[in-house]
Amino acid sequence: MTGQTMSEKVLARASHTESVSPGQIVDGDVDLLYMHEMLAMALLPFNEIGTMKVWDPEKIVVTLDHWVPPPTPEIAKMHQSIRDFCRKQGIRRFHDVGDHGIVHQLIAERGYAHPWDLVIGSDSHTNMVGAVGAFAAGIGATDTAAVMAKGQLWLRVPETMRVDIHGTLGERTGAKDVILKVIGTTGDDAARYAAVEFTGPTVKAFPMNERFVLCNMTTEMGAKVGMIAADQVTKEYLAHTGHRFEAIGSDEDASFVKTFTFDVDGMGPQVACPSNPANLKPVEEVEGTKIDVAFLGSCTNARIEDLRIAAELLRGEKVAPGVRFQITPASQIIYRQALKEGLVEVFMDAGAMFTSSTCGPCFGGHLGTLAGDEVCISSTNRNYPGRMGSPTAQVYLASPWTVTASAIHGEITDPRKA
Amino acid sequence: MQTRFQGRVWTFGDDISTDHIIAGKYLGTTDPKVFADHAFEAVDPTWARNVRPGDLIVAGTNFGCGSSREQAPVALKTLGISAILATSFARIFFRNAINLGFPVIECAGLRDLVKSGDEIDLDLAGGEVRVPSGVMLKFTPLPPNVLEILEAGGLVPKLKKELASRAR
After folding, report:
1. ipTM strictly over 0.85?
2. What is the pTM (predicted TM-score) of this model?
3. Which domains does chain A carry?
4. Residue of A nearest to B20 (CA)
5. Record: contact A189-B29, CB cut-off 8 A
6. How many CA atoms lie within 13 A of B159 on its CB side?
7. I want to staple A328 with a disulfide (CB 3.0 to 4.6 A). Which of A297, A350, B19, B42 is the partner?
8. For A382, nearest residue in chain B (alpha carbons)
9. Which residues on chain A are in Cβ contact (under 8 Å) with B96?
């Protein structure tokens, strides 16, 4: 038997076979299904399928994240229907408004996903959770209903693409710059249907918050999953759960469909320009572009480490006149931590706005959307036309460093000079 | 299952995202008509009004990339789009469409042979599509497990049937 990649190992385990190969269709037993407001869309097909009960309420996690707090009566009603469903189905791990978070972050920080797990989420950025060594893929409403009913999902075993990263990054440059560089080099569909596995000394040296950024944006490469071998760093991150830790990685003789090697030694900040995540420029080439809005939020880059970066730059500074700088933590746990560390005060002293956790602005849903022709620099993951509001708004994607430096200067700014 | 589709084409380019198809600001409902009314608004605000049931979409690579929002294929299906032919599809959009019983076909080379307004003739079972110049393009048929869902009319009817036969 030839070696297996880590995504193949998880799918073999989940489908109770020795090994699987790319292209094969398997029915995988789902270890964790998690959902946000898409559950409201899945109720109709779920009720129609007619199993009445979910397959296992202990394997389901639900939170509310897209519209928190609900901006319209109709959305408040959607939240009610989700609340009712969780109660009736006995889903204990329902994290209601107040205890909520952007679902991927909530899953990560509460240690709900583990190495070797087949994790299915009702959102495209489920890929993020693969950073713990799980096979974590996003699906839509009907598939969600089917998993709730059966606890299984058919999956095509993906080819694995390896992204091998070497070198020590330049100052004020991080995983966001790396993944933007990767997407800008390979294109926004280079990994369609594939698993992306990050390897190399740069990745091994990244703490979990940075590993999450890498896996999160494999979605913008078209990938089914993004994965990183579970090692000591993963183990320590999950230690608080008390769950037995079992490392996972690809076999040495596993076969990869392609390997991209990146030398990021001394690399500086990168920016994805309107209106495609692959439209990459080094920050030097877009410096000086006037901005109206800066946003630090989303599942991609709104963890406590990102907020600390913002506070470090904002301390003693002011947000540029005419610019609105919004900081939205990825979860309530992060919100509380930011309060404890005094970061919120720094943000407010600088004239930034700090909100409760929600996906709202990232997808143009609510709580800060963009007007026509407004220019925004954002720590989020997508910048397709209309993504954050008006179709004529211009969105630049960048790291927390670059977003915050730009908010202070009112124009896209190289954080190394801030 | 209907396998022959003849209709007018709307063409789109590469990397058409779910944000293009249905913007996030319209997702705060479960009413499919809302999604349909605002489909492709970011590209052309009059588009949804001009679509006729039976029209087809022909696009380039990575159609439906971005979000997992099933509202995107729901919007297009609700408008009566009978099938989408693209050079390639983003994976979640593809699954979502098939699960709704909505034919999505990967057909390389078609995008360059047609323009909006052309009539095409799609033979799903035969695996070919005829363009106005008379050229017949072959495409790789859908994999059997995917075709099975489509033939059942979507994933829900397929699962219902399976449950019923198990109960018997």
Report:
1. yes
2. 0.97
3. 6-244+254-262 (3.30.499.10), 272-417 (3.30.499.10)
4. A385
5. no
6. 26
7. A297
8. B66
9. 140-143
